[in-house]
Design brief:
This protein is mainly alpha-helical and 116 residues long. Helices cover 36% and strands 7% of the residues. The longest helix has 10 residues. The chain binds a DNA duplex (13 and 13 nucleotides) through helix 2, helix 3 and strand 2.
Length: 116
DNA sequence: AACTTGACGGTCA
DNA sequence: ATGACCGCCAAGT
């Protein structure tokens, strides 16, 4: 049994703070965790997010341009998009049109992080 | 053990 | 605006 990488665990904790109807990006999470440039690792963590024991709203994490790059990792053909649309995101061609409006930056929103 | 592949993002031409 | 390159580093082959 492989223990979950502590970095992954921090990633999941941040993602769990993303409010419904808001989205963040892989890079924003990496920066917040003090690992700028390690956005790919956040992506990898999200890839494994389903193995975490607590719910991780992975659909709320997109790339820095608002593209639904993780779409393929959800079941069905359009689950990620549907989940986001249900929360108010406006999506067209795999891109969140109101991205700027609903973007949630942990660096700005989570001043106090006793949890992480 | 070497090489490739990513749910990324910044820089530079 | 678009695209190549590069740093990042865990997993898969």
């Amino acid at each position: 049994m492989t223990s979950i990488d502590p970095f992954f665990k921090r990633v999941y904790e941040v993602v769990r703070q993303v409010p419904q109807g808001r989205v963040t990006s892989y890079g924003a999470i990496a920066r917040y965790l003090g690992a700028p440039g390690a956005a790919r690792m956040v992506g990898w963590a999200m890839n494994q997010s389903h193995t975490h024991h607590e719910f991780v709203p992975a659909h709320r994490v997109v790339n820095r341009k608002g593209l639904l790059t993780g779409k393929h990792h959800f079941s069905g053909t359009n689950l990620m998009q549907e989940l986001l649309e249900n929360e108010g995101a406006v999506i067209e061609e795999n891109r969140i049109l109101n991205f700027q409006e609903i973007f949630w930056d942990p660096l700005l929103e989570l001043d106090d992080l006793n949890l992480i």
